[in-house]
Design brief:
This protein is of the alpha/beta class. The protein contains 15 helices and 11 strands. It is globular. Bound molecules: pyridoxal-5'-phosphate.
C-alpha cells in the first residue's frame, strides 16, 4: 500500500486494531532481529553522513503508513546501527538489553508517567523505592543507603558531588560561587584513571577544572592512597577546601578497583564526602564471591551503580545510593505552588532530588529483570562473563605473541600483540607496537564479526575485550581470538 493511500486518523491516536497488528509485528520483528543478529556487522558499515543523505530534509506534511515507516526502519536505520546487542560486541563496556527489560520499556512508554511527584506516579515512586532496596540487598550495601534513579552514572555522580558541596555549609545554593571572596577553592579528588564524567560533573557544578585534582595510581592502576593524603595536606596548606573524594570500583580503562577501605580514613580525617563510582563493576557484587569489590562502602557517603551496564537493563538506568538524601534534597528541592501537594511531607517526590522535573518510569524494567532472572540468575550470567574473560586472558598469557597489560579483576581483558619485531630502539619498538595494535583492532572491527576498543596504559596502546553481553558465549570469545591472530599474521 502506498503512503498516500493509507489514511492516518484525522484526530486521535492510531486505530486500536492497527495498533494491535503493528504491535505484534514489531515484537516478531525484534525476535527475528535477535535471531539474525550474528549475521549483521557489529560496527555500522557506513560513512559519516550516509544516513542523513538518505532522509528527507523536510518533515512529511501528511501522516505516512506504518508499513512504510517500518520498511524504512529496516532499509535505512538498521544498516546505520552499531549492534550493541550483538554477542561479539566486546568494546567499551559490553552491555546488553534483555527480554524483560524490553517489556519494561514498552510498558513504561505506554504508561508515559512523569514521576516528578508521588501523586503523578505513585507506582513509579514506590516501585523505585522497593526495587532499589532489592538491588541494595543484592549487592550487599547496608540499609543506611537509599537509592534514587537517574539516567546515567555521569548524572548520578554529579548529583553526589552536588550533595557533598551542599554539605560544606557555605550557602552555595543561595549565593552561588562566582564573585565570592569568602569562598576557598573547593576541591574534588579522583585517580588519574577515573572516568571523565567526574570532571564534567565538577565543571557543570561551577567548581572548574581547577577544582579537580587527579591522583596518580599504582602499578595496578589503583589510586595511590599515600599520594592522595599528601595532595590533601598540600591543598589545605594552600588554603583550599578538600571536600570530596571519588573512588572508582571498576575503572573504565582497566576495571581496577581503588582501595576504598584505605581511602576512607583519609576522607574521614578531613570530613570529606566519599563517593564511589561503581558504574560498571557495582553489578558484579550480585555474585557472592565478588561482593568484596564494594568492601569499604559501609563507610562511604554515596555509590553509583549502573544496571544499564552489567545488569541486562536497556539504556538508561543508573542508581545513586546515598546516605544523606537530606543533603541531596537541600541542594535540589524547589517547590513552586503548582507542584505543592497535601502528601508532600509523607512521600518521596522524585523531583526534589535532582535537576529534572519529570522522571521516566525506569524502575519498572529493573523490577521485571530482577523478578525474571532472580538474583541467582543474574549472578550466574555475570560469573560466566568473568569465566569467559579469564579464558581469553589465559590464551593471551600462553601465547608468545600477545601480552596482558593489566590485572583482570572482573570481565575486562587489557592486552596487546607483542610479536618480535626489529627496531632500533625500545622507543621505536614501542611506537611500532602501538601502530600494529591499532591496525589489528581496526582490522578486526572492519570484518564486522566482532568489535573491540582500546585505551592507553603507561603510554602504550592497549586493546580491551569486555565480556558483558547476555548473548555472549565461548563461541564468540574463541572467534574473536582467531580474528585477532589472523590480523596479526596478516600484518607482521
Ligand atoms: N563511570 C565509569 C567508571 C564508567 O566506566 C562510565 C562509562 O563507561 C561512566 C562512569 C559513565 O557512564 P554513563 O554513560 O552512565 O554516564
Amino acid at each position: 500500500m502506498k503512503a498516500e493511500e493509507k489514511v492516518t486518523p484525522a484526530l486521535g491516536d492510531m486505530d486500536k486494531e492497527e495498533f494491535r497488528r503493528f504491535g505484534h509485528e514489531l515484537i516478531d520483528w525484534i525476535a527475528d532481529y535477535f535471531e539474525r543478529i550474528e549475521d549483521l556487522p557489529v560496527l555500522a558499515q557506513i560513512e559519516p553522513g550516509d544516513l542523513k543523505a538518505q532522509l528527507p530534509v523536510a518533515p512529511p506534511e501528511k501522516g505516512e503508513a506504518m508499513e512504510e515507516i517500518i520498511r524504512d526502519g529496516d532499509r535505512l536505520i538498521v544498516p546505520a546501527l552499531t549492534h550493541w546487542s550483538h554477542p561479539s560486541f566486546f568494546a567499551y563496556f559490553a552491555t546488553s538489553t534483555s527480554a524483560p527489560g524490553i517489556f519494561g520499556e514498552l510498558l513504561s512508554a505506554a504508561f508515559d508517567n512523569k514521576a516528578m511527584l508521588w501523586r503523578t506516579s505513585p507506582a513509579s515512586t514506590e516501585l523505585e523505592e522497593v526495587t532499589l532496596d532489592w538491588l541494595r540487598q543484592m549487592i550487599g550495601l547496608d540499609p543506611g543507603y537509599t537509592g534514587i534513579i537517574y539516567d546515567t552514572a555521569s548524572v548520578s555522580s554529579m548529583h553526589a558531588i552536588a550533595a557533598a558541596r551542599e554539605g560544606v555549609e557555605m550557602r552555595i545554593r543561595e549565593e552561588g560561587m562566582s564573585g565570592r571572596k569568602d569562598l576557598p577553592l573547593l576541591r574534588v579528588y579522583v585517580s588519574e584513571q577515573a572516568h571523565s564524567s567526574i570532571e564534567k560533573g565538577v565543571i557543570t557544578l561551577g567548581l572548574g577544572q581547577k577544582g579537580l585534582r587527579k591522583i596518580p595510581t599504582d602499578s595496578e592502576f589503583r589510586m595511590d592512597v599515600k599520594a592522595l593524603a599528601e595532595a590533601i595536606d598540600e591543598d589545605k596548606r594552600n588554603g583550599y577546601l578538600p571536600f570530596c573524594v571519588v573512588a572508582t570500583v571498576g575503572t573504565t580503562s582497566t576495571s581496577s578497583i581503588d582501595p576504598i577501605a584505605e581511602i576512607i580514613p583519609i576522607g574521614e580525617q578531613h570530613a570529606m564526602w566519599l563517593h564511589v563510582d561503581a558504574a560498571y563493576a557495582g553489578s558484579a557484587a550480585v555474585v557472592p564471591e565478588l561482593r568484596h569489590i564494594l568492601n569499604g562502602c559501609e563507610r562511604a557517603d554515596s555509590v553509583a551503580v549502573n544496571p544499564h551496564k552489567w545488569l541486562f537493563t536497556p539504556f538508561d538506568l543508573s542508581v545513586l545510593y546515598c546516605r544523606h538524601l537530606d543533603l541531596l534534597r537541600r541542594a535540589f528541592s524547589l517547590v513552586p505552588e503548582y507542584l505543592r501537594t497535601p502528601e508532600q511531607e509523607q512521600v518521596r517526590n522524585g523531583s526534589d532530588y535532582g535537576i529534572q522535573l519529570g522522571r521516566r518510569f525506569r524502575a519498572l524494567k529493573l523490577w521485571m529483570i530482577i523478578r525474571y532472572f532472580g538474583r541467582e540468575g543474574l549472578a550466574a550470567r555475570i560469573r560466566e562473563h568473568c569465566r569467559l574473560a579469564k579464558l581469553f586472558a589465559s590464551w593471551v598469557e600462553a601465547s608468545p605473541d600477545w601480552e596482558l597489560m593489566a590485572p583482570l579483576p572482573l570481565a575486562l581483558v587489557c592486552f596487546r600483540a607483542c610479536p618480535r619485531i626489529e627496531a632500533d630502539s625500545e622507543a621505536g619498538r614501542s611506537g611500532r607496537l602501538d601502530v600494529l595494535n591499532e591496525a589489528i583492532m581496526h582490522g578486526v572491527n572492519a570484518t564486522g564479526k566482532a568489535l573491540l576498543s582500546h585505551t592507553k596504559l603507561n603510554d602504550k596502546l592497549t586493546l580491551r575485550l569486555s565480556v558483558g553481553n547476555i548473548r555472549t558465549t565461548e563461541k564468540q570469545v574463541r572467534q574473536v581470538w582467531e580474528l585477532l591472530n589472523e590480523q596479526l599474521r596478516l600484518l607482521v
